[in-house]
Amino acid sequence: MTPSRPAPSIRTAPPQSRPECRETLDRLTHSLLAARTSDGHWTGELSSSALSTAVAVIALTLVDRHRPQTALRAHARGGIAWLIRAQNTDGGWGDTTDSPSNVSTTALCWAALTIAGTDDSGCVAALERVRDWMRRAAGSLGPRPLADTISRRYGKDRTFSVPILTVLALAGLLSADEPNTDGSGNEQRGDDRNDRTRDGIDHRSQGSGESGVVGSGWQHVPQLPFELAAVPPAWYRWLRLPVVSYALPALIAIGQARHRQRPTRNPLTRLVRLAARKHTLRRLEAIQPRGGGFLEATPLTSFVVMSLVAAGESTHPVVERGVAFLERSVRADGSWPIDTNLATWVTTLSINALARRPDWCDRLGPAERSALSRWLLDQQYRERHVYTDADPGGWAWTDLPGGVPDADDTPGALLALHALRADTPEHREAACAGIGWLLDLQNADGGIPTFCRGWGALPFDRSSPDLTAHTLRAWTAWRPVLPGALRVRTERATARAVRFLERSQEPDGSWIPLWFGNQAAPADANPVYGTARVLEGLAALPDIEAAPACEHRAAHWLIGAQGGDGGWGGAPGVRPSIEETAVAVSALAVFRRLPRAATVADLDNSAARGVEWLTDATEEGRRVETTPIGLYFAKLWYSEKLYPWTFALGALAAVESADLRYDQ
Questions:
Q1: Is 635 within a domain?
Q2: Gap between the Cα atoms of 53 and 48, Å rounded
Q3: Do 428 and 361 sit in the same domain of this protein?
Q4: What pLDDT was estimated at residue 194?
Q5: Which of 504, 522, 539 is the last residue of a domain?
Q6: If residue 619 lies in a helix (H) or strand (E), which one and from where to where?
């Protein structure tokens, strides 16, 4: 993580005219262009994840115990070795190797060591440390304190709490007041238990169609209503499911595992679930991408695989394809990332950052821009999405088959296409489809959710300020060339979106984003990122549609949130990072171009100090360090190799045309 630096001395020359600022921008540009694939786009690299590694190890181990395969055991051993190396000094694990320990990831790593660990000294010592950490976190290793601790972390949203509790049940860690031990104070691992209770599964009933209860562990796992997945997708928004829209595979697989291990006593409900079992398994198979990975996500795919094994479906085709995905996704060091890649997202970030340079066409030639246009057009969904039932027209975060169209990647792609070539019929056709897709997604409150309109009030299904602002930028950029009816519809939607942003602004002038957080900030929020992104979205609007009062409060909040050294963290007083400083500088620089920004005091000085911090922090573009600010579903942190490059480049390029002046 980027260390704090002394406050730079303020120079009299504006930053855009200083050689070191231009040299930093040029070096960042050169490095970003060099990071392209042989096909000309960007793939990036997500950080390795202890959470992903733990659940992948568990899934492969459970499959191996039913259908022994040398390769699966080797992957599991490699994952366990990586987890032991990545364990924090306090005995826990965070989502990345730069993350503080948290109860979710630590609980899953504990389960992985319990199920797949060995009796060697390194594993035994790691288990001792993690048991101590979990005891401190939960107050006890008894099942009720553990279950309550996990449930409190996520509240009403069961998208992730139920999978974690399922894993603990599979590991036998919810079956007694203290986990079973081997006499040395360490948990017995699954391969040392008798056949009936191995892995927390009643193996007597495998293949018999009967359900068996293993101890009391499964009673702490809430039953997910998997039978509801049998209804038409159009009904989902009315059912108020206890998980978010993209978690349907987990709803089906974990629900079936829980029902198999501890069926309901209600005879009618039991009959309904029995009748829905095969239908929902067919539904699960139908929505599995051809690559095997649900959302290209190791955690979701692993939860599905292990749960189907617990449901007596170890040979199901979904398991086979899921295992193949996990085998392809493992890294040379034995770890797994949170997701395969964010290729579409980082490509649009890179294009939109480069396009802020007036001379960007000189650095990215016509053939290269044409290839990027073709690649982006190929990523647009042209058919209804089998997973979310989304209409055609959107973009996902990845070019791989597990992606799902969403309301952050779609605006990003629209802005990139506009920058590349807004005047061709093919681009306008794609833009009309993408803008129509976003218009159809808009919620009744005027805001934009991530995946599905009107699904519910859980995270990722409700309206979000950062996604709404990103959508505003895309609508505004393309509006002049839209056909009449679509242009009128976009104008009306814009007014509704602005009203949503006015209502969702915090009393202090900030906005809280959805998809980015900060591990050191209160409630893990990242108001710096959210406020910066919304300010940029509002600044894209013409004066007649703008919300100047909101803009001014946001700009004042950002200026006040700046650290004494000139950098920004995710919130006031939080250690600064390249990513967060860059988005703040970018927003202030973009806003600075507008006449309505003239009355904001200290705006120029604040942005200029941020530029100096970025120049120093990147060693004038020679080195960049990543920070875990990416927030995946249910508070899973990640860092992305290209984020600091694209964010810093975009910020410095925005400053070049902002005409900053110091008040000296």
A1: yes
A2: 8
A3: yes
A4: 36
A5: 504
A6: none
Lookup: tokens for 454: 């009107």
- Give the residue numbers spanning the domain of 392: 341-504
**Does one domain contain both 260 and 319?**
yes
CA 126 to chain centre: 28
What is the DSSP secondary-structure string of 124-189?
HHHHHHHHHHHHHHHSSSSHHHHHHHHHHHHTT--TTHHHHHHHHHHTTTTSSSS--B-SSSSBPP
Q: Are residues 237 and 356 in the same domain?
A: no
Distance in angstroms (rounded) separating the CA atoms of residues 540 and 546: 8
Structure tokens at 639: 């860092």
Q: How many domains does the chain have?
A: 3
CATH code, domain with 460: 1.50.10.20
The DSSP output letter for 446 is S
Last residue of a domain, one of 305, 337, 369: 337
Residue 508 CA neighbour count, 13 Å, CB half:
13
Instruction: Examine residue 41 and state whether it is found in any structural domain, yes or no.
Output: no
Q: Please name which of 25, 12, 5, 18 lies closest in space to residue 582, comparing C-alpha atoms.
A: 25
Please check whether residue 206 is in contact with residue 214, taking contact to mean a CB–CB distance below 8 angstroms: no
Instruction: Find, among 159, 94, 154, 84, the residue nearest to 122 by Cα.
Output: 84
Beta pairing partners, 640: 46
For 78, 237, 259, 304, 310, the CA distances from 255, given in Å and listed in that order, are 30, 19, 6, 10, 11
Q: Give 27-81 pLDDT, tens digit per residue.
A: 999 999 999 999 999 999 999 999 999 999 999 999 999 999 999 999 999 999 9
**Pair 378, 325 in one domain:** no
Collect all residues with Cβ–Cβ distance below 8 Å to 125 and sequence separation of at least 6: none
Per-residue DSSP letter, 334: S
- Which residues, at least 6 apart from 362, have a Cβ–Cβ distance to it below 8 Å? none
Give dist(CA 452, CA 328) in Å, integer. 30
| Alpha carbon distance 387, 300 (integer Å) | 14
Q: Are 398 and 342 in contact, with CB atoms under 8 Å apart?
A: yes
Structure tokens at 400: 């791989």
Q: Do 357 and 236 share a structural domain? A: no
373 and 439, same domain (yes or no)? yes
Strand runs labelled E in 435-546:
none
Please return the burial class of 366, using the count of CB atoms within 10 Å of its CB with bins 0-12, 13-18 and 19+.
Answer: exposed
Average pLDDT over residues 631-649: 88
Residue 321 forms part of a structural domain = yes
Backbone angles phi, psi at 81, to 5 degrees: -60, -40
Do 175 and 28 have their domain in common?
A: no
Nearest-angstrom CA–CA distance, 264 and 270 = 6
Collect all residues with Cβ–Cβ distance below 8 Å to 585 and sequence separation of at least 6.
607, 610, 611, 614, 651, 652, 654, 655
Task: Note whether 496 and 442 are within 8 A (CB).
Answer: yes
Q: Can you read off the two tokens belonging to residue 422?
A: 């807004």
Query: Does the predicted model carry a pTM greater than 0.85?
Result: yes
Q: Residue 359 and residue 349: Cα distance in Å, rounded?
A: 17
Q: Which burial class, exposed, middle or buried, applies to 290 when counting CB atoms under 10 A from its CB (0-12, 13-18, 19+)? A: exposed
Tokens of 283: 């539904």
Higher-confidence residue of 61 and 389: namely: 61
The one-letter amino acid code at 118 reads: T
Question: What's the rounded Cα separation, in Å, for the pair 614 and 588?
Answer: 14
Asked if residue 42 belongs to a domain, the reply is no
Tell me which amino acid residue 305 is: V
How buried is 152 (Cβ within 10 angstroms: 0-12 exposed, 13-18 middle, 19+ buried)? exposed
- Do 466 and 610 fall into the same domain? no
Q: What is the mean pLDDT of residues 390-394?
A: 92
Query: Are 308 and 319 a contacting pair, CB within 8 Å?
Result: yes
- Amino acid found at 661: R
Answer yes or no: is pLDDT of 559 > 70: yes
